Protein backbone atom coordinates (compact mmCIF):
# COMPACT_ATOMS: atom_id res chain seq x y z
CA UNK A 1 0.00 0.00 0.00
CA UNK A 2 1.45 3.34 -1.11
CA UNK A 3 0.43 6.53 0.67
CA UNK A 4 -0.02 10.01 -0.80
CA UNK A 5 -1.55 13.16 0.59
CA UNK A 6 -3.52 13.87 -2.59
CA UNK A 7 -4.33 11.47 -5.44
CA UNK A 8 -5.76 13.05 -8.60
CA UNK A 9 -7.75 10.85 -10.99
CA UNK A 10 -7.15 12.14 -14.51
CA UNK A 11 -4.23 13.94 -16.15
CA UNK A 12 -6.20 16.27 -18.41
CA UNK A 13 -6.53 20.04 -17.99
CA UNK A 14 -8.48 19.73 -14.71
CA UNK A 15 -6.13 17.20 -13.11
CA UNK A 16 -3.00 19.11 -14.13
CA UNK A 17 -4.26 22.48 -12.84
CA UNK A 18 -5.47 20.90 -9.58
CA UNK A 19 -2.07 19.25 -9.04
CA UNK A 20 -0.16 22.50 -9.66
CA UNK A 21 -2.49 24.39 -7.32
CA UNK A 22 -2.17 21.78 -4.54
CA UNK A 23 1.63 21.81 -4.83
CA UNK A 24 1.76 25.60 -4.66
CA UNK A 25 -0.43 25.48 -1.59
CA UNK A 26 2.06 23.41 0.36
CA UNK A 27 1.43 19.74 -0.51
CA UNK A 28 4.45 17.76 -1.71
CA UNK A 29 2.98 14.24 -1.74
CA UNK A 30 0.79 14.30 -4.89
CA UNK A 31 0.13 11.60 -7.49
CA UNK A 32 -1.71 11.98 -10.81
CA UNK A 33 -3.16 8.79 -12.33
CA UNK A 34 -3.82 8.99 -16.09
CA UNK A 35 -5.14 6.13 -18.24
CA UNK A 36 -3.75 7.49 -21.54
CA UNK A 37 -0.15 7.25 -22.71
CA UNK A 38 0.48 10.99 -22.16
CA UNK A 39 -0.74 13.87 -20.04
CA UNK A 40 -3.03 16.52 -21.49
CA UNK A 41 -6.27 14.63 -21.95
CA UNK A 42 -8.61 15.63 -24.76
CA UNK A 43 -6.57 18.78 -25.47
CA UNK A 44 -3.98 16.69 -27.33
CA UNK A 45 -6.39 16.18 -30.23
CA UNK A 46 -7.77 19.76 -30.21
CA UNK A 47 -5.25 21.31 -32.60
CA UNK A 48 -7.41 24.36 -33.34
CA UNK A 49 -6.75 27.66 -31.58
CA UNK A 50 -8.95 29.62 -29.18
CA UNK A 51 -7.63 28.25 -25.88
CA UNK A 52 -6.01 30.29 -23.14
CA UNK A 53 -7.56 33.70 -23.76
CA UNK A 54 -8.75 33.96 -20.14
CA UNK A 55 -5.96 32.01 -18.42
CA UNK A 56 -2.88 33.21 -20.33
CA UNK A 57 -4.21 36.28 -22.19
CA UNK A 58 -3.10 34.77 -25.49
CA UNK A 59 -4.53 32.43 -28.09
CA UNK A 60 -3.17 28.86 -27.97
CA UNK A 61 -3.96 25.50 -29.54
CA UNK A 62 -5.11 22.66 -27.30
CA UNK A 63 -1.69 20.92 -27.15
CA UNK A 64 0.03 24.26 -26.43
CA UNK A 65 -2.41 24.99 -23.59
CA UNK A 66 -1.89 21.51 -22.10
CA UNK A 67 1.90 21.84 -22.41
CA UNK A 68 1.86 24.99 -20.26
CA UNK A 69 0.50 22.92 -17.36
CA UNK A 70 2.57 19.81 -18.15
CA UNK A 71 5.71 21.98 -17.95
CA UNK A 72 4.56 23.28 -14.55
CA UNK A 73 3.89 19.73 -13.29
CA UNK A 74 7.38 18.64 -14.36
CA UNK A 75 9.05 21.77 -12.96
CA UNK A 76 7.34 21.24 -9.59
CA UNK A 77 8.32 17.55 -9.50
CA UNK A 78 4.76 16.24 -9.23
CA UNK A 79 4.58 12.46 -9.65
CA UNK A 80 2.30 10.88 -12.25
CA UNK A 81 1.57 7.41 -13.64
CA UNK A 82 0.57 7.02 -17.30
CA UNK A 83 -1.23 4.06 -18.91
CA UNK A 84 -2.80 3.50 -15.50
CA UNK A 85 -6.48 2.60 -15.20
CA UNK A 86 -8.21 3.32 -11.90
CA UNK A 87 -10.54 0.42 -11.15
CA UNK A 88 -12.08 1.51 -7.87
CA UNK A 89 -12.01 4.14 -5.14
CA UNK A 90 -13.26 3.08 -1.73
CA UNK A 91 -15.22 5.26 0.66
CA UNK A 92 -12.05 5.38 2.80
CA UNK A 93 -10.13 6.90 -0.17
CA UNK A 94 -8.14 3.79 -1.08
CA UNK A 95 -7.55 3.89 -4.84
CA UNK A 96 -7.18 0.60 -6.72
CA UNK A 97 -5.45 0.99 -10.09
CA UNK A 98 -3.72 -1.19 -12.68
CA UNK A 99 -0.96 -0.82 -15.24
CA UNK A 100 1.44 -3.09 -17.12
CA UNK A 101 4.52 -2.08 -15.15
CA UNK A 102 3.30 -2.41 -11.58
CA UNK A 103 0.29 -4.66 -12.00
CA UNK A 104 -2.38 -4.01 -9.39
CA UNK A 105 -1.77 -0.94 -7.22
CA UNK A 106 -3.40 0.12 -3.97
CA UNK A 107 -2.89 3.73 -2.98
CA UNK A 108 -4.18 5.32 0.21
CA UNK A 109 -4.94 9.04 -0.10
CA UNK A 110 -5.76 11.66 2.50
CA UNK A 111 -7.70 13.54 -0.20
CA UNK A 112 -8.89 12.57 -3.68
CA UNK A 113 -9.58 14.98 -6.56
CA UNK A 114 -11.89 13.61 -9.25
CA UNK A 115 -10.88 14.98 -12.68
CA UNK A 116 -11.90 12.22 -15.10
CA UNK A 117 -13.50 14.52 -17.68
CA UNK A 118 -16.47 13.49 -19.81
CA UNK A 119 -17.40 11.21 -22.69
CA UNK A 120 -19.56 11.58 -25.78
CA UNK A 121 -23.11 10.32 -25.99
CA UNK A 122 -23.26 7.44 -28.48
CA UNK A 123 -25.70 6.48 -31.24
CA UNK A 124 -27.19 3.85 -28.94
CA UNK A 125 -28.62 6.63 -26.74
CA UNK A 126 -30.43 8.26 -29.68
CA UNK A 127 -32.67 5.43 -30.96
CA UNK A 128 -32.13 6.36 -34.61
CA UNK A 129 -33.71 3.66 -36.81
CA UNK A 130 -31.80 2.01 -39.66
CA UNK A 131 -28.97 -0.47 -40.12
CA UNK A 132 -25.60 -0.25 -38.39
CA UNK A 133 -23.26 0.38 -41.34
CA UNK A 134 -19.66 1.58 -41.27
CA UNK A 135 -19.14 5.33 -41.38
CA UNK A 136 -20.87 6.46 -38.17
CA UNK A 137 -18.53 8.15 -35.69
CA UNK A 138 -18.76 10.40 -32.71
CA UNK A 139 -17.30 13.81 -33.54
CA UNK A 140 -14.53 13.31 -30.96
CA UNK A 141 -13.49 10.00 -32.50
CA UNK A 142 -13.33 11.62 -35.94
CA UNK A 143 -11.27 14.45 -34.43
CA UNK A 144 -8.75 11.98 -33.04
CA UNK A 145 -8.56 10.08 -36.34
CA UNK A 146 -7.91 13.23 -38.37
CA UNK A 147 -5.69 15.20 -35.97
CA UNK A 148 -3.67 12.43 -34.29
CA UNK A 149 -3.84 9.33 -36.51
CA UNK A 150 -3.75 11.10 -39.89
CA UNK A 151 -6.83 9.24 -41.16
CA UNK A 152 -9.91 10.58 -42.97
CA UNK A 153 -13.24 9.07 -41.83
CA UNK A 154 -14.94 9.98 -45.11
CA UNK A 155 -15.46 12.48 -47.90
CA UNK A 156 -19.19 13.37 -47.79
CA UNK A 157 -20.21 14.32 -44.27
CA UNK A 158 -23.45 14.93 -42.41
CA UNK A 159 -23.21 16.06 -38.80
CA UNK A 160 -25.98 15.50 -36.26
CA UNK A 161 -25.80 17.85 -33.29
CA UNK A 162 -24.33 21.33 -33.03
CA UNK A 163 -22.14 20.91 -29.97
CA UNK A 164 -18.76 22.61 -30.12
CA UNK A 165 -16.90 19.46 -31.21
CA UNK A 166 -19.35 18.94 -34.08
CA UNK A 167 -19.03 22.57 -35.22
CA UNK A 168 -15.23 22.44 -35.06
CA UNK A 169 -15.16 19.16 -36.99
CA UNK A 170 -17.36 20.67 -39.71
CA UNK A 171 -14.57 23.18 -40.33
CA UNK A 172 -11.79 20.61 -39.88
CA UNK A 173 -13.28 18.15 -42.37
CA UNK A 174 -13.81 20.97 -44.88
CA UNK A 175 -10.18 22.06 -44.56
CA UNK A 176 -9.11 18.44 -45.18
CA UNK A 177 -11.04 18.38 -48.46
CA UNK A 178 -14.30 16.72 -47.42
CA UNK A 179 -17.73 18.11 -48.28
CA UNK A 180 -19.87 18.79 -45.21
CA UNK A 181 -23.44 18.71 -46.50
CA UNK A 182 -25.35 19.92 -43.44
CA UNK A 183 -25.33 20.19 -39.64
CA UNK A 184 -28.67 19.16 -38.11
CA UNK A 185 -29.72 20.13 -34.59
CA UNK A 186 -32.72 18.70 -32.72
CA UNK A 187 -33.19 21.79 -30.56
CA UNK A 188 -34.37 25.20 -31.84
CA UNK A 189 -30.98 26.64 -30.81
CA UNK A 190 -27.36 25.56 -31.20
CA UNK A 191 -25.60 23.71 -28.41
CA UNK A 192 -22.26 25.36 -29.22
CA UNK A 193 -20.59 28.71 -28.74
CA UNK A 194 -21.73 31.53 -31.02
CA UNK A 195 -18.16 32.13 -32.19
CA UNK A 196 -17.94 28.51 -33.38
CA UNK A 197 -21.15 28.84 -35.41
CA UNK A 198 -19.70 31.89 -37.15
CA UNK A 199 -16.13 30.64 -37.60
CA UNK A 200 -16.87 26.98 -38.40
CA UNK A 201 -20.18 27.06 -40.30
CA UNK A 202 -20.97 30.55 -41.60
CA UNK A 203 -17.44 31.22 -42.85
CA UNK A 204 -17.52 28.01 -44.91
CA UNK A 205 -21.11 28.16 -46.14
CA UNK A 206 -22.18 25.06 -44.21
CA UNK A 207 -25.95 25.09 -43.51
CA UNK A 208 -27.26 24.64 -39.96
CA UNK A 209 -30.76 23.19 -39.74
CA UNK A 210 -32.29 23.80 -36.32
CA UNK A 211 -35.23 21.70 -35.10
CA UNK A 212 -34.12 18.85 -37.39
CA UNK A 213 -32.90 15.34 -36.70
CA UNK A 214 -31.88 12.12 -38.46
CA UNK A 215 -34.89 9.82 -38.82
CA UNK A 216 -33.25 7.09 -40.94
CA UNK A 217 -29.79 5.79 -41.82
CA UNK A 218 -29.54 4.13 -45.22
CA UNK A 219 -26.93 1.60 -46.29
CA UNK A 220 -25.91 -1.83 -45.01
CA UNK A 221 -22.14 -2.24 -45.40
CA UNK A 222 -21.31 1.49 -45.52
CA UNK A 223 -23.60 4.42 -44.88
CA UNK A 224 -24.99 5.73 -48.18
CA UNK A 225 -27.36 8.48 -47.06
CA UNK A 226 -29.34 9.82 -44.13
CA UNK A 227 -32.87 11.14 -43.97
CA UNK A 228 -33.45 14.37 -42.05
CA UNK A 229 -36.83 15.62 -40.89
CA UNK A 230 -38.09 18.68 -39.07
CA UNK A 231 -39.29 18.11 -35.51
CA UNK A 232 -42.15 19.75 -33.62
CA UNK A 233 -42.04 21.36 -30.17
CA UNK A 234 -42.07 17.91 -28.52
CA UNK A 235 -39.13 16.66 -30.61
CA UNK A 236 -41.22 14.34 -32.81
CA UNK A 237 -40.58 14.29 -36.59
CA UNK A 238 -43.11 16.20 -38.70
CA UNK A 239 -44.47 13.97 -41.53
CA UNK A 240 -43.77 15.32 -45.00
CA UNK A 241 -40.62 17.26 -44.05
CA UNK A 242 -38.17 14.45 -44.83
CA UNK A 243 -35.04 15.24 -46.89
CA UNK A 244 -32.41 12.72 -47.99
CA UNK A 245 -28.71 13.63 -47.99
CA UNK A 246 -26.20 11.32 -49.67
CA UNK A 247 -23.10 10.82 -47.52
CA UNK A 248 -20.46 8.26 -46.61
CA UNK A 249 -20.01 9.49 -43.02
CA UNK A 250 -22.30 10.59 -40.19
CA UNK A 251 -20.68 12.41 -37.26
CA UNK A 252 -22.56 12.57 -33.94
CA UNK A 253 -22.13 15.60 -31.69
CA UNK A 254 -25.10 15.00 -29.44
CA UNK A 255 -23.89 15.85 -25.98
CA UNK A 256 -21.25 15.07 -23.38
CA UNK A 257 -21.71 13.09 -20.17
CA UNK A 258 -19.43 13.45 -17.11
CA UNK A 259 -17.41 10.26 -16.53
CA UNK A 260 -18.70 9.34 -13.08
CA UNK A 261 -18.72 5.55 -12.78
CA UNK A 262 -15.89 5.72 -10.23
CA UNK A 263 -17.67 8.52 -8.36
CA UNK A 264 -20.97 6.66 -8.03
CA UNK A 265 -19.11 3.46 -7.10
CA UNK A 266 -17.58 5.15 -4.06
CA UNK A 267 -20.89 6.66 -2.97
CA UNK A 268 -20.59 10.21 -4.33
CA UNK A 269 -23.99 11.86 -4.67
CA UNK A 270 -24.63 12.79 -8.33
CA UNK A 271 -26.76 15.62 -9.69
CA UNK A 272 -29.72 14.63 -11.88
CA UNK A 273 -29.20 17.56 -14.25
CA UNK A 274 -25.41 17.65 -14.70
CA UNK A 275 -24.73 13.93 -14.10
CA UNK A 276 -21.75 15.19 -12.06
CA UNK A 277 -21.24 15.27 -8.28
CA UNK A 278 -23.11 17.65 -6.02
CA UNK A 279 -20.45 19.85 -4.42
CA UNK A 280 -20.26 22.58 -1.80
CA UNK A 281 -18.42 25.93 -1.92
CA UNK A 282 -15.06 24.07 -1.62
CA UNK A 283 -15.92 21.79 -4.59
CA UNK A 284 -16.08 18.97 -2.05
CA UNK A 285 -18.54 16.12 -2.60
CA UNK A 286 -20.73 14.53 0.06
CA UNK A 287 -17.70 12.36 0.99
CA UNK A 288 -15.29 14.33 3.16
CA UNK A 289 -11.93 14.86 1.49
CA UNK A 290 -13.17 13.97 -2.01
CA UNK A 291 -13.23 16.94 -4.41
CA UNK A 292 -14.34 17.25 -8.05
CA UNK A 293 -13.50 19.72 -10.83
CA UNK A 294 -13.67 20.16 -14.59
CA UNK A 295 -15.91 18.25 -16.95
CA UNK A 296 -16.44 15.39 -14.50
CA UNK A 297 -18.30 17.94 -12.35
CA UNK A 298 -20.25 19.66 -15.13
CA UNK A 299 -19.53 20.11 -18.83
CA UNK A 300 -17.70 23.38 -19.51
CA UNK A 301 -17.61 25.44 -22.69
CA UNK A 302 -14.09 26.84 -22.17
CA UNK A 303 -11.04 24.99 -20.85
CA UNK A 304 -9.90 28.20 -19.13
CA UNK A 305 -12.85 27.84 -16.74
CA UNK A 306 -11.92 24.18 -16.17
CA UNK A 307 -8.45 25.32 -15.05
CA UNK A 308 -9.85 28.05 -12.80
CA UNK A 309 -12.20 25.57 -11.13
CA UNK A 310 -9.40 22.99 -10.76
CA UNK A 311 -7.16 25.54 -9.05
CA UNK A 312 -9.88 26.05 -6.48
CA UNK A 313 -10.25 22.29 -5.94
CA UNK A 314 -6.48 21.88 -5.54
CA UNK A 315 -6.26 24.75 -3.06
CA UNK A 316 -9.15 23.42 -0.96
CA UNK A 317 -7.81 19.84 -1.03
CA UNK A 318 -4.45 21.13 0.19
CA UNK A 319 -6.13 23.04 3.04
CA UNK A 320 -8.07 19.89 3.95
CA UNK A 321 -4.92 17.74 4.10
CA UNK A 322 -3.06 20.34 6.20
CA UNK A 323 -5.98 20.67 8.59
CA UNK A 324 -6.23 24.38 7.86
CA UNK A 325 -9.80 24.32 6.64
CA UNK A 326 -12.54 25.52 8.94
CA UNK A 327 -14.85 22.80 10.22
CA UNK A 328 -17.71 24.96 9.00
CA UNK A 329 -20.30 26.89 10.89
CA UNK A 330 -22.96 24.24 10.71
CA UNK A 331 -25.19 26.60 8.71
CA UNK A 332 -25.69 25.42 5.16
CA UNK A 333 -27.09 27.82 2.56
CA UNK A 334 -28.69 25.95 -0.34
CA UNK A 335 -28.68 27.28 -3.90
CA UNK A 336 -31.91 26.71 -5.81
CA UNK A 337 -32.00 27.05 -9.62
CA UNK A 338 -35.35 28.29 -10.99
CA UNK A 339 -37.04 29.96 -13.98
CA UNK A 340 -34.60 29.16 -16.76
CA UNK A 341 -31.55 28.24 -14.64
CA UNK A 342 -30.97 24.49 -15.01
CA UNK A 343 -28.44 23.95 -12.19
CA UNK A 344 -25.81 25.68 -10.10
CA UNK A 345 -22.29 24.67 -9.09
CA UNK A 346 -21.96 24.61 -6.11
CA UNK A 347 -25.31 23.54 -4.67
CA UNK A 348 -24.54 24.71 -1.12
CA UNK A 349 -22.40 27.27 0.71
CA UNK A 350 -20.98 27.37 4.22
CA UNK A 351 -19.88 30.95 4.89
CA UNK A 352 -17.36 29.79 7.50
CA UNK A 353 -15.47 27.83 4.83
CA UNK A 354 -15.92 29.99 1.72
CA UNK A 355 -13.24 32.35 0.44
CA UNK A 356 -13.83 36.10 0.28
CA UNK A 357 -15.66 35.71 -3.03
CA UNK A 358 -17.30 32.72 -4.71
CA UNK A 359 -18.10 32.09 -8.37
CA UNK A 360 -21.41 30.29 -8.91
CA UNK A 361 -21.56 28.76 -12.40
CA UNK A 362 -24.72 27.64 -14.18
CA UNK A 363 -26.36 27.06 -17.56
CA UNK A 364 -29.73 28.21 -18.81
CA UNK A 365 -32.35 25.97 -20.41
CA UNK A 366 -33.32 28.18 -23.36
CA UNK A 367 -32.27 31.29 -25.28
CA UNK A 368 -32.99 34.51 -23.35
CA UNK A 369 -32.56 38.06 -24.71
CA UNK A 370 -32.36 41.34 -22.81
CA UNK A 371 -32.87 39.69 -19.45
CA UNK A 372 -31.50 39.73 -15.92
CA UNK A 373 -29.77 37.12 -13.78
CA UNK A 374 -31.17 37.54 -10.28
CA UNK A 375 -30.28 35.97 -6.95
CA UNK A 376 -32.78 36.14 -4.11
CA UNK A 377 -31.64 35.75 -0.52
CA UNK A 378 -34.68 34.17 1.20
CA UNK A 379 -36.99 36.22 -0.99
CA UNK A 380 -34.99 39.48 -1.05
CA UNK A 381 -33.33 40.27 -4.38
CA UNK A 382 -29.61 40.78 -3.78
CA UNK A 383 -28.16 40.30 -7.28
CA UNK A 384 -29.72 41.72 -10.47
CA UNK A 385 -27.35 41.66 -13.47
CA UNK A 386 -28.31 42.61 -17.03
CA UNK A 387 -27.53 40.17 -19.86
CA UNK A 388 -28.03 40.96 -23.53
CA UNK A 389 -28.29 37.32 -24.58
CA UNK A 390 -27.97 33.97 -22.80
CA UNK A 391 -27.91 30.56 -24.49
CA UNK A 392 -27.62 26.94 -23.29
CA UNK A 393 -24.31 26.49 -25.13
CA UNK A 394 -22.51 29.07 -23.00
CA UNK A 395 -21.80 28.82 -19.29
CA UNK A 396 -22.89 31.72 -17.12
CA UNK A 397 -21.77 32.85 -13.68
CA UNK A 398 -22.54 35.17 -10.81
CA UNK A 399 -20.19 36.17 -8.00
CA UNK A 400 -21.12 36.18 -4.34
CA UNK A 401 -18.99 37.63 -1.56
CA UNK A 402 -18.62 36.50 2.03
CA UNK A 403 -19.29 40.07 3.16
CA UNK A 404 -22.56 40.02 1.23
CA UNK A 405 -23.72 36.72 2.77
CA UNK A 406 -22.74 37.62 6.33
CA UNK A 407 -25.26 40.46 6.21
CA UNK A 408 -27.96 37.77 6.27
CA UNK A 409 -27.24 35.73 9.44
CA UNK A 410 -30.45 33.70 9.09
CA UNK A 411 -30.12 33.02 5.37
CA UNK A 412 -31.13 29.46 4.42
CA UNK A 413 -31.56 29.55 0.62
CA UNK A 414 -30.37 31.52 -2.41
CA UNK A 415 -32.63 31.30 -5.47
CA UNK A 416 -30.96 31.93 -8.86
CA UNK A 417 -33.35 32.73 -11.71
CA UNK A 418 -33.71 34.51 -15.05
CA UNK A 419 -36.03 37.52 -15.15
CA UNK A 420 -37.31 39.38 -18.18
CA UNK A 421 -36.20 42.98 -18.57
Helix/strand layout:
Blueprint: E1 2-9, H1 13-24, E2 30-33, H2 62-75, E3 79-81, E4 85-89, E5 94-99, E6 103-114, E7 118-120, E8 136-138, H3 139-149, E9 156-160, H4 164-175, E10 179-185, H5 194-201, E11 208-210, E12 212-218, E13 225-230, E14 243-246, E15 249-252, E16 256-258, H6 261-265, E17 290-292, H7 303-322, E18 333-337, E19 341-345, E20 348-349, E21 357-364, E22 368-377, E23 380-390, E24 396-401, H8 402-406, E25 413-420
Parallel strand pairs: 1-2, 1-6, 2-3, 6-17, 8-15, 9-10, 9-15, 10-11, 18-25
Antiparallel strand pairs: 4-5, 5-6, 7-16, 12-13, 13-14, 18-20, 19-21, 21-24, 22-23, 22-25
Helix pairs in contact: 1-2, 1-7, 3-4, 4-5
Provide the descriptors you would attach to this structure in a database record.
seven-stranded mixed beta sheet, 421 residues, single chain, alpha/beta, FAD/NAD(P)-binding domain, five-stranded parallel beta sheet, Immunoglobulin-like, 8 helices, globular
What would you call the structural class?
Answer: alpha/beta
The CATH first-level class of the largest domain comes to Alpha Beta
What would you give as the CATH superfamily of the largest domain?
A: FAD/NAD(P)-binding domain
**Count of DSSP strands:** 25
The major sheet is characterized as: 7 strands, mixed
Number of domains: 3
CATH architecture assignment of the largest domain: 3-Layer(bba) Sandwich
Mean pLDDT: 94
Low-confidence stretches: none
Content of β-strand:
25-35%
CATH names the topology of the largest domain as FAD/NAD(P)-binding domain
Through-space gap between termini: 59 Å
Amino acid sequence: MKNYDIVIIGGGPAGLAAAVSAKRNGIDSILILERDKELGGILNQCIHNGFGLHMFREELTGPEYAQRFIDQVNALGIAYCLNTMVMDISHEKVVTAMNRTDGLLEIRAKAVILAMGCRERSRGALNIPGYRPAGIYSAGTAQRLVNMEGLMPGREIVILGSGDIGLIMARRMTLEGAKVKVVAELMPYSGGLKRNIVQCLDDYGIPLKLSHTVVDINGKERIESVTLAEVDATGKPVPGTEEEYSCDTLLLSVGLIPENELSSGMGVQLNNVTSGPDVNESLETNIEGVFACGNVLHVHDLVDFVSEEAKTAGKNAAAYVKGERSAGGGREIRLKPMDGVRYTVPISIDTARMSEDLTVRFRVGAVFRDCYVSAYFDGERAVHTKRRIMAPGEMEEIRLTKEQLLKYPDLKAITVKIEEA
